[in-house]
Amino acid sequence: MSLRHRQQILDNLDAIYREAYERAKAAKDERRMADLDASYQREQLLLEVLLDIRDSLGAPGAPREKSADPVAALETIRRITRLR
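Request: output the structure for the sequence above.
Response:
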């Protein structure tokens, strides 16, 4: 099984939201632009937490980054669950 690198995954997320944001901007749909901006930030944070968890579990073939800190990942999860 081949795991994708962290930056590739984050770049894919960025590309998806950027395309939708540009469509909303072209349509002058400011409400949609604001919704997309908020959604992007939330999903980026959640995705980074999941990637931190993946990296900290040491999945075979997972790119290991120096910044992968399991305690920080758990703290982020705690903060996210408080937002709900």
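The mean pLDDT is 82.
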